Amino acid sequence: MGRLVNRRVGVRTSCRGTPEAVLLGDVWVEIVAIEERWRDTGCWWSGEREKVFYRLRIARGGLVEICREVRGPGPWVLYRIYD
Amino acid sequence: MEFVHLHCHSPYSFLDGGSSVGELVRRAVAGEMRALALTDHDNVGGAVDFRRTAEKYGVKPIQGVEFTLPGGYHLVALARNAEGYAGICKLLTRAHRRGERGRPRLDPSELAGMGQDLFVLSGCRAGEIPFLLLSGHYREARERALFYREMVGDSLYLELQPAVLPGDLGLHRSLVELSEELDIPLVASADVHYARKADFPVHDLLTCVRTGTTLSATNPERHLNAENYLKSAEAMTRHFRHLPDALRNTLAIAEACEPVPDLGRRRYPTFALPRDVGTADHLRDLVRRGALERYGHSDGEVAKRLDRELDVIISQGYADYFLLVEDVVRFARGRGIRCAGRGSAADSAVAYCLGITEVDALGRNLLFERFMSPERGEKPDIDVDFDARHRDRVADYVRAKYGENRVAGVATFNTFRARSAVRELGKAMGFRPEVLGDLAKRIPRGSGSGNIAEVMEILPEFRNHPEGWEGYERLLSAAAAVDGFPRHISTHCGGLVISDRPLEEVTPLQRSAKGELICQFDKEGVEELGLIKLDLLSLRMLSAVEDAVMDIRTRDRAFDYQAIPEDDEETYAMLHRGETLGVFQLESPAQRALQSRLGASNLEDIIASVALIRPGPIKGDMVEPYIARRHGAEPVTYIHPDLEPILRKTYGVVLFQEQVIEIAVAIAGFSPGEADRLRRVMSRSRPGVEMEELGRLFVERAAQRGIGAEIAEQIYSYLRGYASYGFCEAHAAAFGNTAYRTAYLAQHYPAAFFAAVLSNWPMGYYPPNTLCTEVRRRGIGILPVDVNASGSRFTIEEGNIRISLAQVKGMGGAALDRLLRARDDGFFTSPGDFLRRVDIGADLAENLILCGALASLEPNRRSLLWMLTAGGRRKRVGSFARDIPDFSPEEKIVWERRILGIEAGGSWMGLKREELTDRGFVTTREARSAPEGEEVAVAGTVICPHRPPTRSGKTVVFFSLEDETGLVDVVLFSGPYRRYGHLVFPRAKGPLSVRGEIRRRGGAASVVVQTLEPLSVQ
User: Fold this and answer.
1) Confidence of residue B872 (pLDDT cuts 50, 70, 90)
2) Are strands B966-972 and B60-68 parallel, antiparallel or unpaired?
């Protein structure tokens, strides 16, 4: 089951912008695999901006989703954590 | 790396394409793509537009389609060659004929053996193979891939798309695995649905319209992101750089595809004749025999003209076409179906001799070159009007004669216009329907959606909106983006195509709403495809004429419509009084005003009238000079003597398209083909550079003929002034003929004529109540609808007109049949007897009561209603509460108007007359006879408000005001319009009170508005 978190999170990326580690608590957790990557325009009619999402397999064996606005780019958000 | 998009949807995917064909092609050009494919859903309606546009921009067009398969799966096919295109057409035809209407389904096994002519791509995520892979069913996907390869061999490709959606990574992995395992090549595509990323909102809105949802609602059809744009080669390369073959394959496929469909090749049918009879000889023979009937001989000038026309017709290869049309007209006439040719065909004496048209082109000296010219090489267009009730019988004859598989209807693409765009996109955006309705109704009918914001700035009816128009910007900008997009396909009103081969090789066929087969191309498209089009049009006025003539003949067996005298003084006197309501083409307020000033005394005047009241002559300010010259109030001058024979019949004014051609020939020595090109350039809304170029050529050529530059330039300036309002004299003559004859019927047989017009309504300009007011003005009574006396049509009783039962709101054909059959057993003796014997629904019974149709059985409508609604009509029959007070006369009139569209028992305005007179209002009849300059107050219902174009560009509104005595025309000039326009548009809520000054022009009076307000009465 996934739990909606939707708060800012620190993410370390490669020079091409691909996430490599995510800051959970005060620990940088390495990303083992990018399971999915997608874009979502959201509620464009309400002024919401397009976001890029990643579903990530992390070193501790968990699964998280992070996202950020494509333009800017905006800050990273921890969107969802899976049990 | 180079790349070509092979999967691309345009607006011909109907609400699933967010950019026009032109935008898509231009985007491909900007990305330096050498080719582009068009793959709309289940149709190739955009093929002609796409091929022309792509070739114009130097892009190779690849025609394809995205089929829908059973289960709703998608599959893309691209035509490799002409056989492939024909194959797509056949497959689409079968898919459309198999599935229920609007839900075509291709049986994929029908692709068997088509690999030589088609490329087949596995499609988007809705494709069968990708769908199975996404669902984790690799083995099933593998089986289906093997099946498709069995069908089309090496022409099958697995499509990889950078959709950037959840599941993409896994889907791509599986597709690559499948490709490697089965050795099926990969191909990259982007499932393009719009040209630029920024166009996504438009596509999203269209998807909401298509799925009947709003933006705030979720729907699986809506795309999650804006990745379905026409991505650049660089972007596609970035996505698939690890799979270079998938990119390279796009180029290989594009290279292997030939542009289709083949345009310009004739596919005309041949007219079946006995083996020993040649088409040309047969046509000449028919024309000669027709000439003997029409002219009494076929020698001299007649022979010369006919030979000249026949030479062109035969040498251009149109002999079969003329024989075909003649055969159709002969069929109709042989069965008593009234018909008449219209349009430029009436420029042909051959058409006249064949009985196709009723205009004597030779006698009128009409210019054949306007209709056909060897230089132009365009297909001649013959349009024939038929009695609307029998048009389908004629079409059935054509189908039976040439074969169901070679005849089909022409499509038309219903496109987004301002009103529809506002209503539909606004609904998707969540605006309230009543707000959208209010906004849409204020937009002038027929306006494009590209400039609604500007229209809102200008028109006063956009003022006084309780909530203002803020917050509509996004809607208006979306509406502008879809301006002109095809929204759905429907049937052209009269066009039929006939082919020399099975049509499904040239165009896919699908069922229309009426169940007939139609092409997937509109009239321009079918002509480009080389198909011959026959316009069999429905004209309700011909139905009315037929009814009127039949009725007249019951009293006067000798009456002959064709023999109506062309010089009937009483008819012309009626025209001079402007009493032309109901008369074909002459009934609009502007026409009525013209008639009362023109003083028409012959058919030529009427023909000129038909051409004069058009936007062009009005904008070009041609009407006043014409009238002045017609009356000798202004001298008729010609700046060059060669113009006199051409312009004499229109008093020196250039009125007809034929005159433009003749002037160009006479003054500048243009060949008829060059002159016709000038005519066509002028007819465009923006003639532009070509017009200037032709002007230089005109002056240059005129100089070679010794005509000075100054005079030539002046003549050309007249022609340029004429630009955009061209009207074909032959068409005016064809319509003028019917106009005069219907005027004759209105004058001499008004009861028969108006009963026929009312029976065949809708037609013409005015609602039934206005026509009935005119009938009363002519001294003929309007008898109420009555279940014992009315028929299925308006009938004549002792010189008066009885309202038909079909006029009752809610009276369908079946209910009417039941009612009339029951009456055949005997008249109804009481309301109870009626309700017992006639099986009709409660709503219709209520309407019959409220409009007075049972009044002859029981006058108290309210008590009848009580009996129907309170007691249960079958059990309580006969037990009336007679003491219930009836509706007031005013209430009865309101109900009659609502249910019949006619104030049958009297006029609401008439009931208020005493009060109105006390308050100083005059009737419209009094206003019509008031002197010039008199100030009047007049009240009535607003009829047909409209804003014709004016030369100054200022808005002037014309409408008629109707009361119990008739109509008076009202003019709202620019200033008052800005103050009061909102009271007239979108629709006046009730009667208006008008104060203004009488303006008299000729015999007609109109009220020039000073003040306007809703009428308040006791």
Assistant:
1) very low
2) unpaired
Predicted local distance difference test score (pLDDT) of residue B683: 73
Read off the tokens for B620: 């070009």
- Residue B1008 forms beta bridges with which residues? B971, B997
| pLDDT tens for each residue of B937-995 | 999 999 999 887 676 777 889 999 999 999 999 999 989 998 998 899 877 889 999 99
Contact B250, B189 (CB under 8 A): yes
Interface of B with A in 144-173 (CB under 8 A): 164-169
Instruction: Name B217's Cβ contacts closer than 8 Å, sequence gap at least 6.
Output: B208
For residues B729 and B406, what is the distance between their CA atoms, to the nearest angstrom? Answer: 34
User: Considering only residues 185 to 214 of chain B, which have any Cβ-Cβ distance to chain A shorter than 8 Å?
Assistant: 200-201, 204
N-to-C CA span, chain A: 6
Contact assessment for residue A81 and residue A3, using Cβ atoms and an 8 Å cutoff:
yes
Residue written as tokens 């016709």? Answer: B676
* CB nearest B226 (choices: A36, A41, A45): A41
CB atoms B164 and A50 under 8 Å: no
Q: Is A43 at the interface with chain B, CB within 8 A?
A: yes
> Cβ contact (<8 Å) for B166 and A38?
yes
Task: Name the pTM for this structure.
Answer: 0.89
- Whether the CB of A44 is below 8 Å from some CB of chain B: the reply is yes
User: Cβ of B429 under 8 Å from any chain A Cβ?
Assistant: yes
Q: Do residues B996 and B972 make contact, with C-beta atoms less than 8 angstroms apart? A: no
Amino acid B135 reads S
Structure tokens at B542: 């011909």
C-alpha–C-alpha distance, residues B539 and B517, integer Å: 22
CB contacts, 8 Å: B224 with chain A: 38-41
Query: Nearest CA to CA, how far is A36 from chain B (Å)?
Result: 6
Q: Does A1 touch chain B (CB under 8 A)?
A: no
Query: Which helix (DSSP H) or strand (DSSP E) does residue B616 occupy?
Result: helix B615-619
The kind and range of the H/E element at B225 are none
Q: Which residues of A touch B225 (CB under 8 A)?
A: 38-41, 50
Q: Which helix (H) or strand (E) holds B734?
A: helix B729-748
Query: Is this prediction's ipTM beyond 0.90?
Result: yes
Residue B876 β-bridge partners: none
Give B809's pLDDT tier (boundaries 50, 70, 90): very high
| Cα→Cα distances B510→B38, B299, B504, B520, B708, Å | 20, 49, 10, 7, 59
Who among A36, A43, A45 is closest to B166 (CB)?
A: A36
Q: What is the pLDDT of residues B518-529, one digit of tens each?
A: 999 999 999 999
User: Can you state the angle between helices B672-683 and B688-704, rounded to 10 degrees?
Assistant: 150
Residues in chain B: 1018
Residues of B in Cβ contact (< 8 Å) with A36: 166-169
Quick check: A38 and B204 CB within 8 A?
Answer: no
The b/e string for B454-476 (b: 16+ C-beta within 10 A; e otherwise) is ebbeebbbbeeeeeebeebeebb
Pairing of strands B1004-1014, B966-972: parallel
Q: Do residue B225 and residue A44 have CB atoms under 8 angstroms apart?
A: no
Map residue B646 onto helix, strand or coil. helix
**Sheet containing strand B156-160, strands side by side:** B35-41, B60-68, B74-79, B118-121, B156-160, B186-188
Which residues in A lie closer than 8 A to residue B167 (C-beta atoms)? 36
How does residue B204 score in pLDDT terms, banded at 50, 70 and 90? very high
Instruction: Please state, in angstroms and as integers, the Cα–Cα distance from residue B81 to each residue in B45, B77, B251, B468, B502, following that order.
Output: 18, 12, 16, 56, 18
A41 touches chain B (CB under 8 A): yes
CA distance A69 to chain B (A): 13
